[in-house]
Fold this sequence. Notes:
The protein is of the alpha+beta class. The protein has 19 helices and 17 strands. The strands form 4 sheets. Strands 8, 9, 10, 13, 14, 15 and 17 form a 7-stranded mixed sheet that branches. β5 and β6 form a beta hairpin. α1 runs parallel beside α4, α3 packs antiparallel against α15 and α10 packs across α11.
Amino acid sequence: MTGTKADAEARLLGRTINRRRLVQGAAVAGAAASTVFSAPAVIGQGKQPVVFWTTHTNIGWEALQKIAADFNAQNDQYEVQAVQRPPADVADSSSLITAVRGGEGPDVYLLDRFIVAERAANGLLQDLTQLMEDAGDNTDLTEQYVDFAAAEATYNGAPYALPFDTDVRALFYNRGLLQEAGVDLEPFDPANGVMIWDDVKDIAMSLNKEEGGNFTQVGFVPYQPQGWLYTWGFSWGGEFFDYENCEVTPDNEKVVEAAQWVYDYCAEHDPQKLYAFIQNAIRDGAPPTDNPFLQNRLGLMINGNWMFAQFDQYAPDLDIGYTFIPVPSADLESSTWAGGWSGVVPQGAKNPEGGYAFVRYLCGPEGSRTYVEMNKNLPVLRELLEAEDLFDENLRWFVDNLFPQTKYRPPLPVGAKYWTEQRSAWEAIYLNQADPATALATCKQNTQADLDAGGYCPIAPPSEQA
Length: 466
């Protein structure tokens, strides 16, 4: 599932690429995507165009179109054209890279925040320092944004992005399916503490149903939709980067233990049969309605707070609950992790000033509020986290109970490479094609090779970067 897109990206981001070479040279064949949708927009008389690209779909795309329209209505200098690019894995920036190399890149791009450091290191992004100073903005992102989001948007102490939103993960459950199977719901009440993974497994197994040798209903698929290696490694108390030795650590003892649990769980179900049940839902760009949880055929899933908008739109009659991500043993505290997007100005932008004007609106109070209200994501602006009118009961629980234990992916100059290698190893693990220790050792070897070759070490922890 890493496929040719990741291979193409690796070639485009070879070590010979630098900032100068990214913004010069002939256009590369295939710079334009095969399918591009533009939000309806008319460039106002005298207004300078700002081209904004995103791979978001469904409700997220609708919210971004509204944010662009709201900006256009109140700004007399710039007019944003929102362009929807084809869906891709979050680490796949090949379309943007190709366009920038060909001199046809956008003025603003919505980039997954954990790969900002890598794209900055590769020379794909503009350092926002001067644009921020010219606009009278504080270049210390921690003054306005929560610490983990500010850290992800910073590289070598400089801001290369403004944080847009965040999301945290929890265990969602279908009360109806659980009750139908005679499951006691009391342990799922977060007021009763954190559940143990082996207990969750026993419950999940009781929900499985088969017909003709295939699953028609499943209790739990540990790798779908947000059951990534990070999710499980953090749950076991693992770490993914050793700053002292400048090493990626997917082979951390606790991470390997977590991966072994998932390996064994999938083996008990027949990994190919479990994958056949979930495969339509885990395709990049799959519509929300392909999710068997929304189809009332999956009892439990690890997912993020954005699901509340999908529940409202696609499955309003489902009786849904949520609780902390379980732990392997009672001596551990539950943990979760945060993702999120960011607004960046790519190198070679034709209108960088206009691009930054939209980025600061998109990632400011007005744009962030719209996105929270429509897409049910969480803000990273400190002032909005204190806004009592912004969150319903569900989102307030996520903010109050999950933010204090939130971890995040290490912001590394090989962040996208690390993600791609993890994804490849993770697929081999849950399909039982490789044992966890071997798959994760390969992940480490391949990622560390890029880290060493790039000459990026030492890397200071985000809290110590000036």
